[in-house]
Amino acid sequence: MIKRYLLFAIALFGYQTYSQHIESNVPDTLQRKDYDYLFERIEATSENKLNQAHYLQYFLQKAKNDKNFEEIVNGYKNYLHYSTEKLKVIYADSMIYAAKESNDNALIGSAYLSKGIVYYGQKKHKYALDNYLIADNYISKTNDKYLIHKVKYNIAHIKYYLGFYDEAISLFLECTDYFKYKNARAYLNSLHSLGLCYNKIGNYGLCSEINEKGIREGMRLENNEMRDYFIHSEGINQYFKNNYTNAIQKITYAIPIINKNKDFANESVSYFYIGNSHWGLHKPEKALAYFLKVDQIFDEKGYIRPDLRQNYERIIEYYKTKKDIHKELYYIKKLLKADSILDNRFRYLSSRIRKVYDTKVLLRDKQEIEALFNKRKYDTYIFTGVKVLFFLFVLFIVYMHIRNKNIYRLKFQEVMKKKETLSELDIKSANNGIGDINKDTVGVILKQLERFEKDKKFLEKGLTSLKLAVVFNSNPKYLSKIIYHYRGKKFTKYIADLRIDYIITLLKEDYKVRKYTNSALADEAGFSSTQSFVNAFFSKAGCPTSYFIEEINKMSQSG
User: Fold this and answer.
1) pLDDT tens-digit profile of 502-519?
2) Which residues have a Cβ under 8 Å from the Cβ of 15 and sit 6 or more positions away?
3) Residue 137 belongs to domain with CATH number
4) pTM (2 decimals)?
5) From CA 507, how far away is CA 522, in angstroms rounded?
6) What's the total number of domains in the chain?
7) How high is the mean pLDDT of the chain?
8) Owning domain of residue 7
9) Domain contains 474
């Protein structure tokens, strides 16, 4: 802390000295320039630090002379952007100080948000979250939708980091909807983060869709800054699909831009999943080389996250097969160190990570190896620590069970309150065509869809857009476009929701149907498999069929 304030004092003294010099040497032409011009010159001279320092200083001095608090904050923000990591937090503090002088909630909140982003970039997530929450407190008092969504985006990243993927997905979806027409880079960033969340919850197909969409949208918006990151994300996704060779190719392709951006976190993740892919291809020697690179970044930056824990499990396993007990012991100690950091940073997340080498096993192996050198026994506190960890784990499981029950109850109540209609969206007027489809064609197909829904033709098994288009004497492209426009969903989702609405109605009205198995319900609704029915029901109702039937039976008995 003392060192930080010392740096601040030195920076302040240097600024005052230089600003006095610059005031007496600013040419008249520069004095007449506005802030936009000065900002453009700051960006344009980024390769010439001496010239850039001139414009940075004059921008801030002009703002102070004008007593323009917004531009004073921007002046410090300019410094923050081009300063070293050690000075970034100091300039962020200066932004906050100046913003508070303005008594402008949006400006103060934005300054705290910038400080949080600095901490997040340094992987100091606790401090980042603290500042995001302060920023949210100020920004929520304003009507600045852009800043409100910017806070949501950054808090979503903390939720993702802690493993609350469903909550992160909800926030990132809001951000993609808002930023799509407001800010191209923020939109693409939100899409990328959304894809990462889908990967974490095991929805690899949807992750691939998001990555492909991100690349397409980048081309449409003429912004390719995130292209390599989408390829990187898809490489990791391919690893989870067991397509190891493809994973290696995609991740390797993205590494140069990641290194150029000095993104050590994604660099570490890249090496880990390339190593894991080689491991999956039964090439442990190649895998080890990448695992050791992850270890090097851990040594240099202290960066670790739950999935990277397996990096040390692999290294330990490698040296165990080589019977190299010295290195095995060394990396067991490394893994224990990583666990200690993870337990501090991820108190909620760590218990959810499957541990091949849990703490108890690690400590036992460590003691057995050390016994070869000094013949010491386990200390009793080790067992106490394991018991405490186990107790916390049980508490977490109980908490998650109760939390899920509460969520299911709310979802069930929502479904029961819904007014039963043939579709979720009212049919809109077909006075206009859709793209290349004229209004007459739209009107005909809408009437056919009404009859299709009313007659419950959606229960037919093996139904596809092609089959239905043939029945409607149309084509799949037109049919899908009209369904998406007037029902708000793709064809597969449209059919699945109609079927689930039908089943929900049956469950409400017929107690005999409540005795059906999932397999029988799937058959009744026309699903091709039990699993696809189970997934569709949960997606629509927000709870499993077993819970839904149980609650309906309770209502029937109490009634």
Assistant:
1) 988 888 888 888 888 888
2) 57, 60
3) 1.25.40.10
4) 0.56
5) 13
6) 2
7) 80
8) 1-142
9) yes
